[in-house]
Design brief:
Keywords: Aminotransferase, DNA-binding, Pyridoxal phosphate, Transcription, Transcription regulation, Transferase
Shape: globular
Pfam families: Aminotran_1_2, GntR
Largest sheet: 8 strands, mixed
Number of domains: 3
Family: In the C-terminal section; belongs to the class-I pyridoxal-phosphate-dependent aminotransferase family.
Protein name: Aminotransferase
Strand content: 5-15%
CATH superfamily of the largest domain: Type I PLP-dependent aspartate aminotransferase-like (Major domain)
Bound molecules: pyridoxal-5'-phosphate
Helix content: 40-55%
GO molecular function, one term: transaminase activity
Number of helices: 15
């Protein structure tokens, strides 16, 4: 490499270094998501100074070609940040009853089929499994728990686990009382309890659009109505739209993921999050914060959960270990605040308590530091998978396809050009052993017919790349069919 930079040329050395990296990317010598050599290594390879390389990296970063990640170095992005992102949608301003069950059942069935490439399931830890470390911990717990291990656990949860969680919330500036934290069966039960603490059948709940279909399903099953508030793919909820909805309707509560919405991966800037809580509390509307992806941010440090900004105690936080340790353990929690007593009554009525051994193992897993060590690796792998997947989508999907730029989490939101129906693509892809999640599942009003959610929470192998190429071909075939029919 040392002969490539030429001191006789009129361009500055840093421009030559930047050009060299652009060419290596164009020729695929450097691949999307790949880490660039450190400043020192690159300078030594090219026989230039460290400030020259630094200047080149800064220029490429400004052009959106590479990104700096705190304490990790510089990484190649999938494409210039100028690529097309999904657009804001016009949504109905009226609350609606919802019905999502049938399509959800089909998608769930598909992800459990043997041999299927599981783009349809958001299971990030598949990319960096905790199984061995957790199995070791669980064996130890089973040996030491003795008779207690098979007894009923405390209704509000295993005390050492609750203490671990309380300790972790201190890191983000939130002091949680022992009694307001309740361990649940996953975040799904936490959300169900939170909704039933504050709403009764017929009440209107504001949700993000698009949003996680499990929330829509809950609203449907609890006899509530949904009003969809559009989100911006980078910054989350559009506060102006929310403010208009609050003026037009009696909204009882909102269920939002301010940190890393599923399926878009948006992350609300801190100020917007503070403004969101202030806006809702000025209307006495409860915010149920779904924070399951909060720990999977790509650019740290972790932001403050919405609860931090609450002045009136109208924020309920729900989260779980499903995306960061073990979804099969079904361990989540809610910080119910002023609703703690009602929430505990609902927990008792629904499931009495959550599996004790699973809570015990997770509390040991946290205490040993294994959880945080795995999390660091998991974030790195997901970040790199994201870049690779964006790269493949932009290269192999039909022209005009738009892709989100998630700020964390494990899913990509893809919007196809006209003529491609995502539900038809779901059925077609399944015939080729590829599972995807059709976009309409993420809307109470069946929007996003041209969108799909793809999970990059999987080990990256050649077969993943082949499946993405195939998916692009299948989408193109649907588009051609549509064009020849019209
Ligand atoms: C945004 C969101 N919230 C809640 C849940 C439910 O989490 P759990 O598996 O812990 O019940 C999920 C699961 O996929 C999710 O994506």
């Amino acid at each position: 490499m040392s002969t490539i930079v030429n001191r006789e040329k009129t361009e500055f050395l840093y421009q030559q270094v930047a050009q060299l990296i652009r060419e290596m990317k164009a020729q695929n010598t450097l691949q999307a998501g790949q880490k660039l050599p450190s400043l020192r290594n690159m300078a030594a390879k090219l026989n230039v100074s460290i400030p020259t390389v630094k200047q080149a990296y800064l220029e490429l970063e400004q052009q959106g070609l590479i990104e700096a990640k705190s304490k990790s170095g510089y990484f190649l992005k999938a494409m210039d940040s100028q690529y097309d992102k999904p657009k804001r949608r016009r949504l109905s301003s009226q609350p609606i009853a919802v019905n999502k069950q049938s399509l959800i059942e089909q998608v769930y069935e598909a992800i459990h089929r043997k041999g299927v490439i599981p783009f349809g399931i958001a299971n990030p830890i598949a990319a960096c499994s905790t199984d061995k470390a957790l199995a070791r911990t669980m064996r130890r717990v089973m040996t030491m728990s003795g008779h207690q291990g098979i007894n009923y656990g405390a209704m509000d949860g295993f005390a050492p686990l609750k203490k671990q969680l309380i300790y972790r919330y201190l890191d983000v500036g939130i002091g949680v009382d022992f009694d307001e934290l309740i361990i649940t069966n996953g975040a799904q039960e936490a959300l169900a309890i939170a909704l039933q603490c504050v709403a009764k059948p017929g009440d209107v709940i504001a949700i993000e659009s698009p949003t996680y279909f499990g929330i829509i399903e809950l609203i449907e099953n609890l006899g509530l109505k949904a009003i969809e508030i559009p989100i911006c793919s980078e910054k989350g909820i559009w506060l102006e739209d929310l403010s208009n909805a609050l003026q037009q309707h009696t909204i009882t509560a909102c269920v939002f993921s301010t940190a890393l919405n599923n399926p878009v991966g948006s992350l609300m800037p801190e100020q917007n999050r503070a403004d969101l809580v202030a806006l809702l509390e000025s209307h006495d509307v409860v915010l149920i914060e779904d924070d399951v992806y909060g720990d999977l941010y790509f650019n740290g440090p972790r932001g403050k959960p919405a609860q931090y900004y609450s002045k009136k105690g109208l924020v309920i936080s729900c989260a779980s270990f499903s995306k960061t340790a073990a979804p099969s353990y079904r361990i989540g929690w809610l910080i119910a605040g002023r609703y703690a007593q009602k929430a505990l009554g609902l927990k008792r009525a629904f499931s009495c308590s959550s599996p004790l051994l699973n809570q015990w193992a997770l509390s040991e897993f946290l205490a040993s530091g294994d959880y945080d060590r795995n999390l660091v690796k998991l974030r790195q792998i997901l970040r790199s998978n994201k870049e690779r997947m964006i790269h493949f989508v932009l290269q192999h999907f039909p022209a005009g396809t738009c892709v989100s730029d998630p700020q964390g989490g494990c899913v990509l939101w893809v919007e196809f050009p006209a003529g491609i129906d995502a539900t038809a693509l779901f059925h077609l892809a399944l015939m080729h052993n590829i599972s995807i999640t059709p976009g309409s599942m993420f809307s109470a009003s069946n929007k996003y017919q041209r969108c799909v959610r793809l999970s990059y929470g999987l080990p990256w192998r050649d077969e993943v790349e082949r499946a993405l190429i195939k998916l692009g071909e299948l989408a193109a075939s649907l588009q051609m069919k549509k064009q020849s029919a019209t």
